[in-house]
Task: inverse folding
């Protein structure tokens, strides 16, 4: 090594040490936390704690494809995993790809939601939210994309509603075979844990119980993660990404008790979805009746919803001729964040959706205006409201 | 993953400790303990709430559990209204 290289290396090490010290202090103090879920959006519908958001297109990008994409989020986690940070956001990627993106966020359930069952979501909230999407966009059909348990809700809706005009159904890390899920689900299946053990005085499963369940999948990995953070502490980008992921990992929402009881009885103990149908309300929903093209997306190293639990959807959901598989590297969060998400998930998802959509180069510019200009303001009705569009500041 | 030696050592040690820990926390004994802990927690919270409820009721004040119940009932009414609205539509 020549003296020039040596000096350069020393300079770099000193610089990194200073940055490490600065970022370390910031990290310990908890300041400079990254803002999450920053893609600009408007609230276009509210029902109970649930909200439907429409993401704004950033000029010069514009909506070039239809139908609109409605993402149905899971019931156990925060939806900002799909819109984590600028440059690391599935939502932002889809918007920039020319899609009109909506997110159905379930909010934070409380004791008022303790009685919510799967029917509440499949037959109640989701059809109303989709009616709002139709009003907003003027399009009768949608691309429905469900993440995790949101995928189960989306599939049941697409299969169980005659009037569902689902052009494409995207199932991301969606559990179908609950026999292939992790140890906590196995404990519920074997009766070692009961739904009533997990529900608190509000009638819901508290978020800390859900966090513990996920944490216990690999309780010591945090040590390795913190060591990796220490090594990259000089790198602002890495630290921000780490903080964002760490925040999401700990940030769960209560799970409605009635829905949990139903999930445990029907999905876990009876493993009913494996048979291709589920008793919902007073009818049987047959997953094979879902119309449109179906994309089953699964991550190879997903420990929360292993690929083995998801891939059965390829045999059961929708028309056999119209089923497509997308196998991705990465884990459960590869659908929302991380290097693997940017490199594989986002482009491949966007490509599949756009190739299964209509390209609308110019005509829809006027018809697909922002919520603020297209939504007539109506007085809110109980439970299913059309709010005046609310601009959401980055959280 | 390329990186300094110390990081590789930490990752190796983490796995060496992590694997037996994961086996332990995925065992039946662990889940039995979790279920028991959850039951105890609920019983403890119930006992504390019972005492505070009786104290507040003595003063003719509503307790948190009363408010919770009212909110639950309101929510049921809200849901029923939505169903009626749907039927009408």
Result:
């Amino acid at each position: 090594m020549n003296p020039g290289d040596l000096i350069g290396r020393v300079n770099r090490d000193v610089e990194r040490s200073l940055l490490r010290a600065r970022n370390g202090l910031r990290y310990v103090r908890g300041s400079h936390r990254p803002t999450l879920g920053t893609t600009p959006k408007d609230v276009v519908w509210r029902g109970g704690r649930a909200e439907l958001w429409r993401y704004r297109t950033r000029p010069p990008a514009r909506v070039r494809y239809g139908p609109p994409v409605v993402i149905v989020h899971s019931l156990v986690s925060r939806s900002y995993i799909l819109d984590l940070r600028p440059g690391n956001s599935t939502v932002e990627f889809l918007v920039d790809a020319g899609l009109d993106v909506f997110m159905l966020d379930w909010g934070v359930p409380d004791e008022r939601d303790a009685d919510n069952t799967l029917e509440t979501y499949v037959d109640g909230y989701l059809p109303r939210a989709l009616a709002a999407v139709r009003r907003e966009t003027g399009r009768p059909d949608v691309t429905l994309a469900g993440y995790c348990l949101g995928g189960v809700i989306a599939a049941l809706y697409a299969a169980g509603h005659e009037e569902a005009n689902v052009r494409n159904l995207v199932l991301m890390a969606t559990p179908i075979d609950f026999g292939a899920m992790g140890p906590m689900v196995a404990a519920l299946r074997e009766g070692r844990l009961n739904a009533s053990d997990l529900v608190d005085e509000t009638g819901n499963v508290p978020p800390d119980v859900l966090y513990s369940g996920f944490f216990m999948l690999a309780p010591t990995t945090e040590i390795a993660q913190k060591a990796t953070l220490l090594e990259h502490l000089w790198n602002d980008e890495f630290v921000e990404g780490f903080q964002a992921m760490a925040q999401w990992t700990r940030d769960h929402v209560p799970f409605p008790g009635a829905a949990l009881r139903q999930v445990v009885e029907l999905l876990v103990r009876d493993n009913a979805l494996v048979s291709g149908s589920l008793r919902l309300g007073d009818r049987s929903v047959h997953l094979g009746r879902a119309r449109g093209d179906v994309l089953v997306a699964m991550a190879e190293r997903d420990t929360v919803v292993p690929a083995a639990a998801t891939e059965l959807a390829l045999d059961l959901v929708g028309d056999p001729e119209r089923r497509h598989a997308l196998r991705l590297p990465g884990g459960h969060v590869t659908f929302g964040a991380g290097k693997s998400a940017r490199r594989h998930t986002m482009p491949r998802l966007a490509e599949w959706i756009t190739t299964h959509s209509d390209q609308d180069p110019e005509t829809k510019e006027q018809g697909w205006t922002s919520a603020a200009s297209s939504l007539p303001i109506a007085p809110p009705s109980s439970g299913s409201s059309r709010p005046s569009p609310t601009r959401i500041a980055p959280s | 993953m390329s990186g300094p030696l110390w990081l590789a050592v930490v990752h190796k040690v983490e796995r060496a400790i992590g694997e037996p820990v994961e086996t332990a926390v995925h065992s039946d004994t662990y889940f039995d303990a979790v279920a028991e802990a959850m039951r105890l927690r609920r019983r403890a919270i119930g006992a504390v709430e019972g005492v505070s409820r009786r104290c507040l009721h003595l003063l003719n004040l509503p307790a948190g559990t009363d408010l919770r119940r009212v909110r639950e009932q309101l929510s049921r009414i809200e849901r029923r209204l939505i169903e009626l609205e749907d039927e009408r539509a």
